[in-house]
Design brief:
elongated; about 160 residues; alpha+beta; 8 strands
């Protein structure tokens, strides 16, 4: 009986302590994107075919760049060009290099259907002698979700 009473008290405390207040209308960030742009219909069940067909795409001209041989301390820069061949705006929410020496820059505005843009990747070879292979993970609202870009080369 004591165990049941203790369980009831703990459960009641948890349910009442986790009340989440809704944000006030005036406190909301006016720069947030509408939810219909961010919606991603992918699911464990495969999703709705019509919604999947309308999703944005991120089609790259190339996903691998070989910067050849550079001198240690040099900075190699490459722009990966892509096109949104989908029917809805493409949103890039993040791009992350595999190490601190690889810095991506990506467009912060949605890329409308049919338009192209670029992701600039900068590799700083300071302290990185030898063969180098780095990657950039690009997180989007496209059907694939995460796209991978690669740079490679030799640092002398």
């Amino acid at each position: 009986m004591k165990k049941y009473l203790l369980f009831t008290i703990v459960a009641a405390a948890l349910f009442t302590a986790c009340k989440e207040e809704k944000p006030k209308e005036e406190a909301r960030d006016k720069n947030l994107l509408p939810t219909d742009l961010v919606n991603n219909p992918r699911s464990a069940n495969g999703g709705n075919p019509e919604e999947l067909a309308a999703m944005p795409t991120m089609d790259f001209k190339d996903t691998v760049f070989d910067f050849g041989t550079i001198k240690e301390g040099d900075v190699s820069v490459h722009e990966f060009e892509f096109t949104n061949n989908g029917k809805n705006p493409l949103i890039i929410s993040n791009a992350t290099g595999s190490c601190g020496c690889t810095i991506p820059e990506y467009p912060s505005e949605p890329v409308v259907a049919g338009k192209s843009n670029k992701i600039k990747v900068e590799f700083n070879s300071k302290g990185k002698p030898g063969h180098q292979e780095k990657s950039v993970a690009v997180t989007t609202n496209s059907r694939r979700g995460v796209h991978m870009l690669y740079i490679k080369g030799n640092v002398k």
